Model the fold of this input.
Amino acid sequence: MASPLGVRFERPVNVPPRSVTEVFPAMPGLYLHIPFCRTICPFCPYNKVAYHADLAADYLRGLEQETAMYLAALPGPFPSLYVGGGTPTLCLDEMAGLLATLPITGERAIEVLPTHMTPSGASRLRDLGFDYVSLGVQSFDRRVLRRLQRPGSPRTNRTAIEIALGSFACVDADLIFDSACDDPQILLDDLGVCFRYGVDQVSTYPLMRFGFTPFGKGRHARRGEHALLRAATGLAESLGYERRSVWTFNRIGSPAYTSITRPYYLGLGAGAASFAGSLFAVNHFGLDRYRATLGAGRLPVARTARLSPPAAAAYRAFWQAYTGRVPLEGGDPLLAHPLAVALRNGSRLMGWSRRSGDGVVLTRSGYDRYHDLERWVTYHLIEPLWAEMMDEHRSTAEAGTS
Done:
């Protein structure tokens, strides 16, 4: 499979762990994917399946096996841990043994369904070592929650924030807005709630319409989104927050809750991806294929793309620019590549960025352009790959039940 970006994905027969671990320019962040949900939200494009206790227990045994294969080749320690899904808080007991074996020196982050952020749930997360949490709030507006088919309610979302604050080193609240359908004031009102609570970070995601989801394709009001995010920036600044990436706002002085903007990451689990600079790898999405490959003694890698130095530098520079700031120095060889330097200098010439201290930062126009570019990359690189992997997942499942 080749994307319009010139990245060609191959189907490897066997990927030895060291062929992945040896190409990382620096120690990667560790990502674990837990694909289980009690209810499937129709807008969500991520790899997920309905939760069953036996299925989850079997999956975690496979995840432990995959982790052990990598730890034998890359013993760590890892600078960070990120657990996403799905709904990973459904599987805390099943994950406990695995989490205890992971050598992590920095933050331990996990995505949390707001209905699971109870006093006992928060205590359990702390006992497992998690100090960063991301609450899938999405909105405090009942109409938006109903359309997104989210469990819980505006009150549930508020209670989750109240319990999380003061209990964790970093609390992120995720909000989704759909400028083609929603009143723009809804996002500003939702942001105001989060800012006044004092959460560390608010992530504001425009609804992505993947063709393989029940929501299907839909239009985007690009200029309306630019105006809305500019208004959000003004609101943030008036309440002691700053825009710290294309889609996130942080309380000044707070830590950042980050996932794919980490420079390099090793992804474990069904549907997880890894970026090692010159290598991009994606695991099987289907749980049966994932477990069967591990059962044969092989890593469950379904697709790999070998990136040329310019392609790797462009990919790395793109995600670094998404954070709103690109350092001029820092030792990352991909950001020092001539193509990355040319992209950085070109963005300044076009007025998308400006010099600030020891780096360059996005201008208001730059944020608008990267908002559009992020969506373009999502629809032209991520969606085609995931759609192909989802089709493989479904066809395998249908063959197993026929």
Confidence is low (pLDDT under 50) at residues 397-402. The two ends are 28 Å apart (CA to CA). The chain is about 40% helix and 20% strand. The longest strand covers residues 170-177.
